[in-house]
Amino acid sequence: MCIESMPSEMLMKIFSYLDAVSLLCVSCVNKRFYHLANDNGIWLKIYSGCFPPKRTIWKVKSVQTETGPLSCAPIQDRKPGYWKKEYILKQMAAVTARVMQLVKPVDLYTGLPSRIKKAIKASGLSWMIVLKDRNGKEHVMEQADLFFKDTSVTIFWYSASWPCLDTLLSLKLLGVTPLLLDQSKAPSKNGPRRRSLIAEYDFFNLTESNVTLGADKLVQLFSLDPGLLVGLWKGKNEIAFVMASLHYHQLLERSTLGSATVQYALPSNKPILDDIDPEYGLHDYDLHLDMHSGSCTYLCGTFKSLFCRKGDIENGYLRLTVVSLKDNTKHVPLIGTVGLCWETDAFKGNVKDCYVMDVTLLDETRKPFWCFSAPVCMELSSKASSLYDYMGCVYTTDYADAEGKVCVELVWLEETKEYFIVSLVIYVSTEKVNNWYGTNY
């Protein structure tokens, strides 16, 4: 006997033994299964088993009365799917409450949630990429590996069966969360899930329209803004891996509160005006800087009380000097051999002089002001070091987006085999400062 031809009563009996996730999967088979799997009797049993009614006892004129919040209305009085909806909403609310408790504590140095790794685990959050080709076909790739750092998470996707690069038009980066989360086991990739669009990238003429970040013997790296890195096999024009760097600032919101096609809109900052301070918005910035790759951390430091004088505002930017070329007491070394680690199913590698830079700039109230995480590279400068204490090759690292720029100057010391940061300057857009503080610089 075919299961589709079985009587509805028999199917309902079978469905009554399924859990919530299995019921939702069964309802996607066809219209008949959808209506049967929506039965209020089955879902009320699941709801009551997970959320038993809380009975309250009180006295009214020495007579004890019991009541419960669970509706006593007959099941048939409810619309089909009522208890399914109630169960899903209550489960989602319980997960949200757990996550909100975890993100409340804030790190004093970064201004970001200090337990975000636990919050991500509690929400069941993961990330996927969806590649779309010229025929409209979508290729879904689940995350293969990830690394948590102080202020960002780095995600890798690699596979032996990537679609042909020449046929691809776009790539979507999405956050994925299970509709119903079971804390006792890992989220199922086959169960019902919600998607939230984080960013969309143009893959048309990838090698011609994007910046080459670096290369080794096997792969060549291409950087796409914001924070995406694509590794191509040398000489083959085929994808080896994809890497994304996501800053923790509002990461949970961006990864869960959008839809599959529309990004989550970040709330705008409401400026608090200050008529007393003539240099309001120009001082008391804190910078937390991370330079890393994979499990390696090359620099993790905090720089406090950064400022900019009105006379230093030029070309639409505020200049915040973090490390000065002239003050050698603030020059900082990078730990280890700098290189961007990558891997696939069969190979591993390291692209020299490339790394991931995380910038977290806090305003005077210790609120995140400008945050990003992006792969960058060190380029050999044509000029020699002018510092007596640091005689060696000079390298520069530059990053720029719509909100600001970062300029880093490093010197390679051959004797100790390490890099020293001898100059670090942050340029913040005056337009961003004016919108944030309500000023008019």
UniProtKB/TrEMBL annotation:
Residue ranges of every copy of the F-box domain listed in the record: 1-46
Superkingdom assignment: Eukaryota
Assigned GO CC terms: SCF ubiquitin ligase complex
Transmembrane feature ranges: none
SMART domains listed in its UniProt record: FBOX
Pfam families the record matches: F-box-like
Gene3D superfamilies per UniProt: 1.20.1280.50
Name of the protein: F-box protein 15
Record organism: Anas platyrhynchos platyrhynchos
Gene: FBXO15
